[in-house]
Design goal:
By secondary structure, the protein is an all-beta fold. It is built from one helix and ten strands, in the order E-E-E-E-E-E-E-E-H-E-E. The strands form three sheets. A four-stranded antiparallel beta sheet has the order 6-1-10-9. Strands 5-4-7-8 form a four-stranded antiparallel beta sheet. Strands 2-3 form a two-stranded antiparallel sheet.
Length: about 170
Amino acid sequence: MAKKASPYEIEVTVISAEGLRLSRNQPVKKNSYVVVRSDPFNTRRTGTDREGGSYPAWNEKLQMELPATARFLTVEAHSGSSLVGAANIPVSDFAAAFLPLNHLSFLSYRLRDARGGKNGILNLSVRVSRRPGPSGSTEPWPGVPVAADGKAGVVTGIPVGKINHV
């Protein structure tokens, strides 16, 4: 059975990391990179930072699908073949119903090593966009009321203060 394409696309910019360590007393020295997963079939990887040590910087944009069923993004920091730390980012942190499409969210997450201990911070930004439909048009984010002028907000037609609460 063919996999259905997601109507949403995300642009994840992996900016930098802070305080990465291979063990409690051993900081990362080189060859660090980040892997981002929206599901097992959608994985992207940054290039390798060879000089940043414990404070690498990538500033690299990764484009990927965001499945409608996704509940979180998984980000993993690696040094060579070693997993340094990982974090699960709830999709609601950057794609909640009250955020408009193309809103740029800047996020920082604490990474946890394989034992659950704190191991650095990852800084990134995420932008959610809607893939163009067959006609090339895009629809508003589901769940966001849209006014007659096309702006997100309160649905027009009901004057404020005229709503009767029962």
